[in-house]
Design a protein that fits this description.
CATH topology of the largest domain: TIM Barrel
Largest sheet: 10 strands, mixed
Number of domains: 2
Strand order of the largest sheet: 3-4-5-6-9-10-11-12-13-14
Number of strands: 14
Structural class: alpha/beta
Distance between the termini: 36 Å
Radius of gyration: 22 Å
Helix content: 25-40%
Shape: elongated
CATH architecture of the largest domain: Alpha-Beta Barrel
Number of helices: 12
Length: about 350
């Protein structure tokens, strides 16, 4: 079966030519895929019935199979997709009151970075996703929103995996998000734990895509305890790469800070962060921790977070507290997959001889 989402427009033209179909039919299908966001071949009503039947028999609209889905009281939708080889990945759609509709998508099945508070990091790495598998996650949400008279406005590559560990596929998917889905570069954010060579390479791409750095601690000792990657790329190297990015692109860097009660939400850490970032064009995005079963600590309270933000203000570092989404459905990265895998293990253990 040919996955139509994996074809470029010239490749779709070639496929239809091999079927002895006129070129305009391929253009019609392309419009149904990316302009009208059709979810089935039956919706492609200006195609002859015979052609629609052949498309059903020989092609597919994507390769991702929904293995589980949860909806939050705040409107957040989280999906667990099964890939053709059995691997599973997560995607989240987050609606906001200002009419933004943001898809958070994965770039890898699992993750090799080993961040201690992340459910995906606790799983380990399985494999890289292809550009098409990355792109299709956003495409599926865009398709669903189109059916409801809405549109996908933003995409963040902050799901399972480290985007810069799968650099080429990530950039290829980003370009498709812009070209095929029409998502503006400034409405796309790529998040990294701090792979310094890739940050520099990303700066040289010439894209206006936003960069977010998962920082979470302001000293090497504390950061290395949370993010093992810091042992390879310590803070001084990371900050040099961030300064290079700002100089090269003229764009600010967003630093993600998962606020962990009693760990990195202290006044001492806030002052250390202020000194680390002072003078850099940046913004700090503070996210109270989404607890996971494999990590003992919990999220910071509002009073501690507000004090943290106030101290950063003394250094003229802008900071905001992100509203946590999907808390009632464990919307944190890797949590739904972990829950499904636990269920599967329990079922297997309950079987005779299990």
């Amino acid at each position: 079966m040919i996955d139509l989402y994996t074809l470029t427009q010239p490749q779709l033209d070639d496929l239809f030519a091999s079927w002895d179909e006129p070129r305009f039919r391929a253009r019609q299908v392309w419009e149904w895929l990316y302009d009208k966001r059709a979810a089935s071949f039956d919706e492609m009503t200006n195609l002859p019935r015979e052609l629609r039947q052949r498309l059903k028999a020989e092609t597919t609209l994507g390769s991702l199979e929904i293995a589980a889905e949860q909806s939050s009281t705040d409107g957040t939708v989280k999906r667990l997709y099964r890939l053709p080889d059995g691997q599973m990945i997560e995607s989240v759609l987050m609606p906001y009151d200002d009419d933004r509709r943001t898809a958070c998508i994965s770039t890898q099945a699992g993750c090799a970075m080993g961040c201690v508070f992340c459910a995906t990091g606790q799983m380990g790495f399985a494999r890289h996703l292809t550009p098409d598998e990355i792109f299709e996650q956003a495409m599926r949400f865009a398709r669903d929103l189109e059916a409801e008279g809405e549109r996908l406005s933003n995409v963040v590559l902050m799901g399972m995996g480290e985007p810069f560990h799968n650099y080429d596929a990530t950039i290829a998917a980003v370009r498709r998000l812009m070209e095929d889905l029409g998502i503006g570069a400034r409405h796309i954010t790529v998040s990294t734990v701090g792979l310094v060579p890739m940050i520099r390479r990303f700066a040289d791409e010439g894209l206006q895509v936003k960069l977010a750095i998962s920082l979470h601690a302001a000293t090497d000792v504390e950061r290395s305890a949370l993010l093992p990657v810091n042992r390879r790329y310590p803070l001084n190297e990371l900050m040099e790469a961030c300064r290079y990015y700002v100089e090269k692109t003229g764009r600010r860097v967003t630093f993600e800070w998962t606020a962990i009660q009693g760990q990195n939400d202290t006044p001492e850490q806030a002052h250390a962060l202020g000194k680390l970032l002072k003078g850099l064009l940046c913004h700090v995005n503070i996210i109270p921790l989404n607890p996971t079963g494999g990590y003992a600590y919990g999220p910071s309270g509002a009073e501690r977070v507000n004090r943290f933000v106030a101290i950063l203000g003394e250094y003229r570092i802008p900071a905001t507290v992100r509203v946590r989404r999907g808390i009632d459905i464990n919307a944190g990265c890797g949590q739904l997959k972990a829950e499904v895998l636990r269920r599967q293990r329990r079922l297997k253990e309950a079987e005779p001889g299990g």
